[in-house]
Write a structure and sequence with these properties.
single chain, about 325 residues, alpha/beta, TIM Barrel, eight-stranded parallel β-barrel, two-stranded antiparallel sheet, 10 strands, oxidoreductase
Length: about 325
């Protein structure tokens, strides 16, 4: 496992993150969760990601019990925004009241005095972005959280938030969390370029499209597009001596150095397979073949701008090297 810097901070984060949405409830039970965490630790992984609402809080509670004396070895990440009480309008959202209450709840469950990476879980259109950014910065200054990120939000919201924070001297979002896989490439339109421009780390969930791209028996739905992608993954995997899951994860990593796939394994065997993606280097022709299975286009303005070239900027523009 190698490490990169979280956004424009000095925090070292592993190439692959461990997601614990499957810890607890009908998912992995505590003993299995321990084995998964131990194997991830042994592999050199150091980012463990959860959320206040995963398994009705059981994910945080299990994780808090497992970290113990090795707490400081991990970059502990959790999220707030989702409701803690469906009957209380202020028990959800990105406003200061919910942030403070959610943070205290997560700290208690995780048995720690600070969160290393605190994510806004999703955009709340009812809360002014300046309220959220100021409240997050206050929590950073109080020592209860160290770095902040945002998940599941439009690119313009993230850009507005980071620009505002920069102007005000507040803590900026260092990370973005979004879905990304061969079948779901929407982030390439606005979110990924925005994150790269701000120097943000991009933590990507569902790299296997909730198991559909793993190539396991029974994991291929009737959707023709998915079947096409799975066939291509299997072909590339056979050529490289890898598994379809490893190739699918390697594809996301090949798209941008900012990308850190989140592994959501529920068994040690699944995690072991996923970790094998670190050893997979995809040749250009394999990436192109996998790209072609998604039938993806940037749409406007991406496709328009990509084709403007010499028509807009003159013939000499074809000889100008970009950054």
């Amino acid at each position: 496992m190698r490490y990169r810097l979280l956004g424009r901070t000095g925090l070292r984060v592993s190439e692959l993150f461990l997601g614990t949405m499957g810890f607890g409830g009908q998912g992995a039970q505590p003993d299995a969760c321990r084995r998964i965490l131990d194997r991830y630790d042994d592999a050199g992984g150091n980012v463990v990601d959860t959320a206040i609402n995963y398994r009705d809080g059981e994910s945080e509670s299990i994780l808090g019990g497992l970290l113990g004396s090795r707490r400081d070895r991990f970059v502990l990440a959790t999220k707030y925004s989702a409701s803690r009480d469906g009957s209380d309008p202020n028990a959800a959202g990105n406003h200061r009241k919910n942030l403070m209450s959610s943070l205290e709840t997560s700290l208690r469950r995780l048995r720690t005095d600070r969160i290393d990476l605190y994510w806004v879980h999703l955009w709340d259109p009812h809360t002014p972005v300046e309220e959220t950014m100021r409240a997050l910065d206050d929590a950073v200054r109080a020592g209860k959280i160290q770095y902040v990120g945002i998940s599941d939000a439009p690119a313009w919201v993230v850009a507005q938030a980071n620009t505002l924070a920069q102007w005000q001297g507040w803590t900026q979002f260092a990370g973005l969390q979004v879905p990304y896989n061969v079948l779901s490439r929407d982030i390439e339109r606005e979110l990924l370029p925005m994150a790269e421009a701000f120097g943000m780390t991009v933590a990507t969930w569902a790299p296997l499209a909730h198991g559909a791209l793993a190539g396991r028996a029974g994991s291929e739905p009737a959707d023709a597009r998915t079947r096409k992608a799975v066939r291509a993954l299997r072909e590339v995997a056979d050529e490289l001596g890898a598994t379809p899951a490893q190739v699918a994860i390697a594809w996301t990593r090949a798209r941008s150095r900012a990308v850190h796939p989140i592994l959501g394994a529920r068994t040690v065997a699944q995690l072991e397979d996923n970790l094998g993606a670190l050893a997979v280097s995809l040749p250009d022709n394999a990436i192109e073949r996998l790209d072609a299975t998604g039938e993806f286009t940037l749409g406007f303005p991406g496709d328009f701008l990509a084709g403007a070239g010499a028509m807009a900027f003159g013939e000499v523009s074809t000889r100008v090297d970009g950054r």
